[in-house]
Amino acid sequence: MITTSRYPGTTLDFIGIPLEDGRTLYDTPGVVNPEQAAHFIDPSDYKKVMPHKEIKPRVFQLNENQTLFLGGLARIDYLGTGRRSLIVYAADDLYIHRTKLENADELYRNQYGRLLSPPSDPGQALPEMRRHDFHTKEKDTDIVFSGIGWITVKGAGAKVAAYAPEGIGVRIRSSIIKG
Predict the structure, then answer these.
(1) Are 132 and 146 in contact (CB under 8 A)?
(2) CA-wise closest residue to 95 among 76, 122, 68
(3) Residue-range definition of the domain harbouring residue 125
(4) 88 shares a domain with 5
C-alpha cells in the first residue's frame, strides 16, 4: 500500500513497486518546497491547482498593458513591447482570465474568490501579492509560479510583472518547451 502525504502526489516512504520482468521501480518521498502554493491554499482547492491529466498549453495573444490572472493565486502583467503570445501551462481546472492592466487591481479586489478562483472562498486571506519584475532576454522565457504552473513568454525583449502571494516562489528560466 502506498502512503501519501497531505500534499497531492507526494509519498511519505520509500516504496518498491515490483515490475512484471522481475525488476523493481522505487518511489521515494518528494522534497517539500516551502514556496509551493499548496502550503497557502485550502485543501479543498487542491483539485483546481493540481493537474489530474496531461497539461494542455493555453495560448493567449496579449497587447501591451494586458493582464492574465491564474485564478486568484497569480497574475502576470504584459507591459510591452508590441503584441505577444503568452502560453499558460497549468491545471485545466485553474481558471485563466484576461483583462486590461488598468482594470486588474479593481477586478482582483472585487472578484477574488469569486471569478478569480481559487481560492473558492472570498474570505480566505492569502498573504499580500508581491510583484516581481522581469525583462526577457531569450527567444522564449518561462515565468514559474511554484506549485501553480508556468507561463511561457514568446520572444525576447518582453517586460512583465508577475504577482503571487508573499511566500509563493516566482522565478524566471529559459523555456523548457522549445518550438
Answers:
(1) no
(2) 68
(3) 46-174
(4) no
